[in-house]
Amino acid sequence: MRTISELIAELDEIATTAEHVAIVLGFETTTIFVWNDNINRLSNLAEAVKAGGMPLGFIAILSAVGSGELGMLSARPLRELSGEEWAEKLFKRLLEEAAKRINFLRQT
Asked: What is the pLDDT of residues 48-86, one digit of tens each?
């Protein structure tokens, strides 16, 4: 497993091409997100890991070019989990749920 600092570095790298990006952490009964624009992201990530959270991957919201509206979503497990069927399914489900929420917000 990578260090907290390495995960934050990858988060920051992904953020250069995304409107918003978060590290996804899994707990036994819930999932939380640590967003790139959170000024306390390093300490929040460290606290979540200390509390038993497992860093799983990233979810990003890309803006539609020139529109100012949210566009495409992207999500992927950490490369250490790449190819793990459960991780691939989790991130597919996260994308589906996020897309539903965005579509709902666009309709209201």
From this structure: 999 999 999 999 987 655 555 556 788 999 999 989 999
Amino acid letter for position 106: R
- Under 8 Å CB-to-CB from 14, ≥6 apart: which residues? 21, 36, 58, 60
Distance in angstroms (rounded) separating the CA atoms of residues 64 and 80 = 30
Q: What is the pTM of this model?
A: 0.85
Look at the chain and report how many structural domains it folds into: 1
Backbone angles phi, psi at 61, to 5 degrees: -115, 120
What range defines the domain where residue 65 resides? 4-107
For residue 41, the model assigns a pLDDT of: 95
Work out whether strand 70-77 and strand 54-63 pair parallel, antiparallel, or are unpaired.
Answer: antiparallel
